Amino acid sequence: MNNERPIESVNRLLVQTIWPFVLIIIILLGATAVSLELMSSVRAYVGGESLWSKGQKGAYIALANYLTSHSDQDYREFLADIAAPLGDHEARLALNQASPDLETAYKGFIEGKNLPDDVPGMIRLYRYFGHTPLMEQPISIWSRADVDILKLSLLAKSVHRQIESGKLDEAKKSRYFQELNAINTDVTPLEEAFSSSIAVISRQIDHLINVILAAMTVLLVGLGLFFSRRLAVQRVNSSRALIKESDKNATFLHNASDGIHILNSSGTVHVASDSFCTMLGYSRDEIVGMNAAHWDVNFNRDNSSPIALELNNAHVQYETVHRRKDGALFDVEVSAVPIEIDGARFLYCSSRDISKRKQAENSLRESEERFRSLVTASSQIVWNANASGEVYQDMPDWRSYTGQKLEKFVGWGWLDAVHPDDRESTAAAWAKAVEGGSLYEAEYRIRRHDGEYRNFNARGVPVLNASGAIREWIGTCTDITDRKRTEDQIHHLAYHDQLTGLPNRQLFQDRLKQDLKRMERNNTALALLFIDLDRFKEVNDTLGHDKGDILLIETARRIRQHVRDTDTFARLGGDEFTIILPECGDELSIDRVVQNVLQEIEAPFDLGDESVGHISCSIGIAFYPHDAKTSEDLLKHADQAMYAAKDAGRNMFSYFTPLMQQRIQDKIELSNDLRQALSRGELEVYYQPIVELSSGRIVKAEALLRWNHPKRGLVGPADFIPLAEEFGIIHELGSWVFLQSISAAADWKRRLEREIQVSVNRSPVEFERQEFQWVEELEAAGLPGGAVTMEITEGLLLQESAMVQARLLECRNSGIEVSIDDFGTGYSALSYLKQFHIDYLKIDQSFVRNLTREESDKALVEAIIVMAHKLGIKAIAEGVETIEQRDLLHAFGCDYAQGYLYSKPVQACEFEKLLTAS
To answer: Measuring CA to CA, which residue among 589, 568, 588 is closest to residue 579?
Structure first.
């Protein structure tokens, strides 16, 4: 093996030395062959010119004889002689074409009596050198000579026709001889010029050959000298390099970091490096001649020893244990290569101390065991895959979990345990990670050995080799089923109403937007139903919130029966529900759904504990895209339609119309104006007198708010008080009216020395707030509680609110009297009149209006008065407009009367005049 490299070097040097000579010789031979072919072709043209000249001369003589003898034999001799020049003419024309016609050129030269062996060279010379200065002159002469040959041919044809027709007279014969002699005179110099030019070309080619031969000879001699010197230099350099390499090898041997040593066939040390001596703790004199069995604990001298095995192999690498001089053992890695020195077999060995690496491997193995134990404890499955993504390692965790056999899950077989719906996406994600060498993460379901599918999160990272390429993949699969269930539960809670299980406002809005996009793509319509329960608050207030929750749950169940699977039925909050009906633009089908919902809600609700709830609902309907283009506008318009249904009497439905939008806009504008009415001084309190029927004197007054709108004029309370309640302005207005009223009462008491009790209406909305400052304000004005009557509606008593009871109790304790306004039109029960301290019942004007015409109203009014008196409550009749009404009321024992018979509501100054007149 050691001898192969020098031989290889010599061969390479030999090739590097002789290849220029071989190349020059090849070039020389090629140039010589080309030059000889050129010379041969030129000489062929010389011979061709001789044949051409001979044919031309023979044709001239034969045509002259034919003019004299008129013998056909002479004419045939002319045709035979002229064929050679004409053939050369055809060859020249064929070679002059853009794409030379080689076949025609060949036939032409053959007809010119040229030797067949010379013709190919003549063609090549003409093709490759015909347009160069070398052949330019001869070809030009040839072309001019061909013109004379054509003239001669044409002259012969003319003579032949004259002789054949017998019309050749002496004059014509004389003219023909003159033309024949002129052609011959013209062509003869051309023949000589062509021969001369060909001779020049021949000399030029001969000179070129001599120059090439001389140049090649000089080049060969120069190369010979160059490479001879180079070989001498290389020999000297090689000797020096060999000496240097020998010194370097000796230095390397003794200074190498690995333990270099050479053993003979029996395992005895022949040569040892310093590092090997240091590794074992011996000196070089001690270790040379020592057998390997002395330090290698695994070495023996039988045929199975490493030495015997290594000597029979090209290269062996193994791990063993060495013993130092002091007896310490350490791990080594031995690399051995058989070599031959002076015909004897030796083993070149390199020992490397791998104790630290073995310690690291043991630590890594222990770490892996700890990691696997940790993974096992955490219910994770560890997996390995090769660089192409195929699982290759035995995974007992996977096998025990899925029940798959080893040969089943390796490669891509593990996908069989993945849920069929997840396989395609899982395989695609894994293939993408493998292709890009990026982090792999995916979630999918895995079939457990018992058939149950569990959710797993799989993660994998590429492991790179030293060159940066992916060596393998390692990853884990973690069971996340419980986490997924928790996430699903959280997601459901985030998007569903906890009480009814219906989609909540957030999910409703999302689905509405998605449905609108789909309707836009499909060019179809969508209906939105906005449902609000009527008087649900009364159920909550009277029966309690627990019963109210039962009613909401039952309401959701009833309505759900009448919606399709493709519809969305949601609870927005409180007692508000919505239904999205995609692809439902037919009002007839909408009417059917709405009527079913109205009937379901109208039926009594069994709320448990023998409690029964009776409610109804109002439904507003808006269509996309007819009524709105966006989800926000559609919901707003359906809401407006729902309020229109409530205003129309409840327990019904209403479709959105543009007029509703205008009404809402007017309401918003009016509410905005109302907010600024106080600061602008547009509000004023009017007073309507309340007369004591027994004396006819004004003893009370009802404070009524009036609004002098700058554009609309005088606006009645029926138009703006509901707005004030709806938009939260009522608290500010109520406080202002109360202050104005007690101020007027205090003023009348001071100036007129009359105590006039003022009735001030208090909205149920005002009871919702904690503050109640009437008592404090009365004390500040110097008025007793009896100076004011608080007018409330019957519905307020039904709330059974602790706050309402506290406020009414506070009024009674402070002397403020309480009056039930519009009695008889509400839903109050007699028990509430007894439960609360009520001072006055105001009989609604709807009963007083027909008092003199309707016996039923007459009986009802009389009954109310009697009932009130029985309960210790005084009666006030509203809307008294005629004396007959007054007299009947007085006859029934009614205590007070109020109405246009006495006065309409007037300003404070006008009311003062009424007091004075009274």
So the answer is: 568
Q: Please tell me the total number of residues recorded for the chain in this structure.
A: 918
pLDDT tens-digit readout, 93-112: 777 887 888 888 788 778 87
Candidates 452, 460, 451; CA nearest to 478 is 460
Please state the rounded mean pLDDT for residues 673-696: 90
446's tokens? 């895995």
- In three-state form (DSSP H/G/I as H, E/B as E, the rest C), the secondary structure along 463-475 is EECCCCCEEEEEE
- Using one digit for the tens of pLDDT, what is the confidence trace for 315-372? 778 888 999 989 888 899 888 888 887 778 888 888 888 888 888 777 767 766 665 6
Which pTM value belongs to this model? Answer: 0.42
Characterize the bridge pairing of strands 616-624 and 653-655.
Answer: parallel
Torsion, Cα of 478, 480, 483, 488 (10° steps) = 150
Q: What would the pLDDT profile of 858-894 be if each residue is shown by its tens digit?
A: 899 999 999 999 989 999 999 999 999 999 999 999 9
Alpha-carbon gap, residue 605 to 597, rounded angstroms:
14
Mean pLDDT to the nearest integer, 33-47: 70
Q: Please name which of 55, 226, 235 lies closest in space to residue 153, comparing C-alpha atoms.
A: 55
- The gap between the terminal CA atoms of the chain, to the nearest Å, is 146
Q: What is the dihedral of CA 504, 507, 509, 510, to 10 degrees?
A: 180
What burial letters (b/e) apply to 756-773, b meaning 16+ CB within 10 Å? bebbbbbbbbbbeeeeee
The rounded mean pLDDT for the chain is 81
Q: Which letter does DSSP use for residue 787 in this model?
A: G
Q: Are 819 and 789 in contact (CB under 8 A)?
A: yes
* Alpha-carbon span 434 to 96, nearest angstrom: 67
| Cα–Cα dist 46/617, whole Å | 127
Q: What is the DSSP string of 609-661?
A: TTEEE--EEEEEEEEETTT-SSHHHHHHHHHHHHHHHHHTTSSSEEE--HHHH
Of 556, 567, 562, whose CA–CA distance to 500 is shortest? Answer: 556
User: What pairing do the DSSP bridges indicate for beta strands 698-709 and 757-761?
Assistant: parallel
Q: Dihedral (C-alpha) 198, 204, 205, 207: value to the nearest 10 degrees?
A: 150
Summarised one tens digit per residue, pLDDT across range 582-637 is 987 566 678 888 999 999 998 999 888 878 888 899 999 999 998 899 999 999 99
CA distance 644 to 660: 8
At what angle are helices 119-129 and 102-111 packed, to 10 degrees?
Answer: 130
C-alpha span between 901 and 883 (Å, rounded): 7
Q: How many C-beta atoms surround the C-beta of residue 111 within 10 A?
A: 17
Distance CA 113, CA 84 (A): 6
Q: What CA–CA distance (Å, rounded) separates 480 from 295?
A: 57
Cα–Cα distance, 8 to 518 (Å, whole number): 80
Residue 537's contacts (CB-CB under 8 Å, 6 or more residues apart) are: 575
| CB within 8 Å of 852: residues ≥ 6 apart | 858, 882, 884, 885, 888
- Could you give the CA distance from residue 729 to residue 672 in angstroms, rounded to a whole number? 10
